[in-house]
Specification:
single chain; 300 residues; 6-stranded mixed sheet; 15 strands
């Protein structure tokens, strides 16, 4: 099998967890002239005007706003994100989807962390217990209520995304009604309370395609900060070659594809597969055995 690039956003960095609760270290790091910070508003990031790449500022250049520790880079510099109360009006900005298609793997990890954290803080400003406005704590890794002392942690929504194959090693792909004709992807859905990822795969595939899954193997995962998901990539197998049927709600088309059929359909422009930003593309190419042509649309 051809080696495939890892899904976007997956590159790790040192999150400096041992410093999150050290207020003196956090203050000193913020005042250090070598410390870098990203400016974030929603899913937009401040960028350099010419290159349109993420603009890392010295902390003294950063606008007012809540700040969150992202970690320490390979050179030992602390890295923060600032959630600007005034958006990113100080300069040009780009959305995370657009940036992820152009930045390096390690850079995408920093951006994903910054945007996901800033979006959670922006939408969880009050205590769910008593309604008091909460305050960032532990370098932004949590929020605390000054009234009842409760701690609240960033939300992550697990979702399964699966490449299903049959006894002929064909792949099951589906199309949502909101997508243009010809757009096909792997099946996906959120994990429900009290449910394992494997159970979610079986339920979603049965609901969306009327196909009963036999075996399930988790093979990779991808943070998906739009706004707060964690995609759990899986491969699943069905017994025999059952005829799939779309549920008419989530999916309006669902089909088995052999490698020859998918390759020919993509070459003719009759089928468009997901863009390289999403783990769905990675799962399809892992099954296919090599890369597929990209239409350049960046569609997930």
């Amino acid at each position: 099998m051809t080696s495939l690039p890892a899904p976007a956003f997956g590159d790790p960095h040192d999150r400096a967890v041992d410093h999150r609760h050290d207020d003196a270290w956090l203050r000193a790091a913020w005042l250090d002239p070598t410390t870098r910070t990203l400016v974030v508003s929603g899913s937009d990031v401040l960028v350099e005007p010419t290159s349109r790449q993420p603009l890392w500022l010295a902390t003294g250049e950063a606008p007012a706003g809540e700040r969150y520790l992202l970690g320490v880079d390979d050179t030992g510099r602390a890295c923060f994100a600032v959630r600007s109360a005034d958006g990113v009006a100080r300069g040009p900005s780009e959305g995370l989807r657009a940036l992820a298609a152009t930045v390096s793997g390690p850079e995408s990890g920093w951006l994903c962390h910054a945007v996901a954290l800033a979006q959670w803080h922006a939408t969880h400003t009050h205590c769910p217990r008593c309604g008091t406005r909460t305050e960032p704590s532990s370098g932004g890794a949590e929020r605390r209520c000054p009234s009842d002392g409760s701690a609240h942690f960033p939300r992550v929504d697990p979702a399964m995304i699966v490449l299903v194959t049959d006894d002929h090693d064909r792949a099951l792909l589906g199309r949502q009604g909101s997508w243009q004709v010809g757009r096909f992807s792997t099946l996906a859905g959120f994990v429900e309370p009290g449910e394992s990822a494997e159970q979610a795969v079986r339920r979603e595939v049965l609901e969306e395609a009327s196909v009963v899954v036999d075996t399930v193997h988790l093979v990779a995962s991808q943070p998906w900060p739009f706004p707060s998901s964690l995609m759990l990539g899986a491969e699943a197998r069905v017994l025999g070659s059952p005829e799939p049927a779309p549920d008419g709600d989530e999916l309006v088309e669902v089909r088995w594809f052999s490698r020859v059929e998918l390759s020919a359909a993509v070459e003719r422009g009759e089928v468009l597969v997901p863009g390289r930003l999403s783990i769905s593309r990675w799962l399809i190419e892992r099954w296919f055995g090599t890369g597929l042509p990209d239409d350049g649309a960046g569609w997930r």
